[in-house]
Amino acid sequence: MKTDLITVPGTIGLAAAAGPWECVVVGAGPAGAAAALRLARNGVRVLLVDRANLPRGKVCGCCLSPAALKELTLLGLEAIAAGAGQPLKTLALSSGGWTARLPFRGGVVISRERLDRAIVEAGCAAGVEWLPGVDVAAATVGADGAVAVSLRGVADGAVVTIRSERLILATGLVDRVRGDADDRVEPCSRGAGGSARCLIGVGTTLPADASDLPPGELRMRVGLRGYCGLVRLEDGRIDVAAALDRAAVRAAGGPVDALLGLFDNSPDAGGSELVASLRAARLTATPPLTRRAPPSSWQGRILRVGDAAAYVEPFTGEGIGWALASARLAADTILQGAGGARVGEVYAGAHQRHFVAPHARCRRVVSWLRSPALVTAAVASARIVPGVAARIVPLFVGAGARGGAS
Ligand SMILES: Cc1cc2nc3c(=O)[nH]c(=O)nc-3n(C[C@H](O)[C@H](O)[C@H](O)COP(=O)(O)OP(=O)(O)OC[C@H]3O[C@@H](n4cnc5c(N)ncnc54)[C@H](O)[C@@H]3O)c2cc1C
């Protein structure tokens, strides 16, 4: 689909980005845009940079968990989800030829184009200077403690180096900004929970008529090679987001065939239109999903938020909520620390305390997925035992989701 680019009021060009800045935020996904918004609201001079222009798509299931909705409310942006979002009503979970249709409440579906743009717009309204179409290649911290950030215009290759008191990296799974010896990213050489399976994300959006999927239904398929979710977005398009075994993608000859393999042998496969649309679609793939990097380096001069700091896997649909929460923790630490040297230590501690339990729970859930027989048994019993459904449903959009018998 061709989408017109949007110029958000507050957009500046590379020539106007000279600074100096109190904070430069790289990446305008939920993590970066929310961190920039919180800082700007508190009077910090913030530059938000992204290599993409708005609206930009993202491989994502587009489901906001109850925790993500709570974070949006804390940001004062609950109207985004309440206005454009489609409330989730049903989870159709398929595995091994069985499908269980479960009542599913507490989450909302919204396209990433809409969500990410709305947070950036709120930031610009609060005073964030927004610089799209610019790639950040490197960052170094000088003897005076200032961060030198190297910017490169995506369209014309123009290079500018700017200075900032602090840098927030919200670059998602694709983290190429380097400059620090202890800045080691730990991508998954193995999968979540130490299993041999390493998953990558694959996604696309399909035309409205590609499936009969009703609004408010999350159709989820779990198979040997990974899992895939389908939802109808607010504009009618079908969002497809999958986590697929990297080795199986290679063995299948590419993501399309690996994805279609998930739809085999199912009476509820979605029909020939869906298969034809998937074959014709342009799929986007991500790097390995499970990763971890230091939340802080250079004594807090450089902080990481969102997926850039840590991500597990998308099965429990919590990444956006985690991104917004880490942005809150980072911004609050900076604001309370007022430039002090302990900002990095305090943020790293807060990050660890906040995420250790949810990440561990997500790892436990995804290790359960490694046993297709177990998943199939759970789906089969959820069709007849209401108590099983009530236990399965919250796994998909985190704590706060409500399931139960239909
Ligand atoms: C298959 C799949 C399904 C998912 N489903 C869900 C779901 O249903 N619900 C949910 O809550 N989460 C889901 N997630 C997770 C969610 O998408 C992420 O956790 C979330 O997008 C993280 O936000 P972020 O701001 O950290 O990063 P991102 O949203 O990835 O944003 C990073 C931004 O940084 C920019 N950038 C990167 N490097 C540079 C650079 N060097 N210079 C300039 N700009 C740069 C990119 O252009 C991008 O705009 C899913 C993920 C996958 C892979």
Protein traits:
FAD/NAD(P)-binding domain, 406 residues, 2 domains, single chain, 12 helices, seven-stranded mixed beta sheet, globular, eight-stranded mixed beta sheet, alpha+beta, D-Amino Acid Oxidase, Chain A, domain 2, binds flavin-adenine dinucleotide
Question: What does this protein structure show overall?
Answer:
With 406 residues, the chain is α+β, with helices and mostly antiparallel strands. It has two domains: 14-59 and 113-188 and 290-364, FAD/NAD(P)-binding domain (3-Layer(bba) Sandwich); 87-108 and 193-286 and 366-397, D-Amino Acid Oxidase, Chain A, domain 2, CATH 3.30.9. It has twelve helices and 21 strands. The chain has helices at 30-41, 66-74, 78-84, 112-125, 246-252, 255-262, 271-280, 319-337, 343-369, 372-382, 386-392, 394-397; strands at 21-26, 46-50, 63-64, 86-87, 90-95, 98-103, 108-109, 129-132, 134-141, 147-153, 159-169, 186-187, 199-206, 217-223, 226-232, 238-245, 284-288, 291-292, 296-297, 302-304, 310-311. Strands 1, 2, 8, 9, 10, 11, 19 and 20 form an eight-stranded mixed beta sheet that branches. Helix 2 (66-74) packs across helix 3, helix 5 (246-252) packs across helix 6 and helix 10 crosses helix 11. The longest helix is centred in the last third of the chain and has 27 residues, at 343-369. The model has no long low-confidence stretch (mean pLDDT 86). Bound molecules: flavin-adenine dinucleotide (FAD). Flavin-adenine dinucleotide (FAD) binds at residues 26-32, 49-52, 56, 58-63, 65, 68, 135-136, 170-172, 174, 176-177, 201, 203, 241-243, 286, 289, 306-308, 311, 314, 317-321, 323.
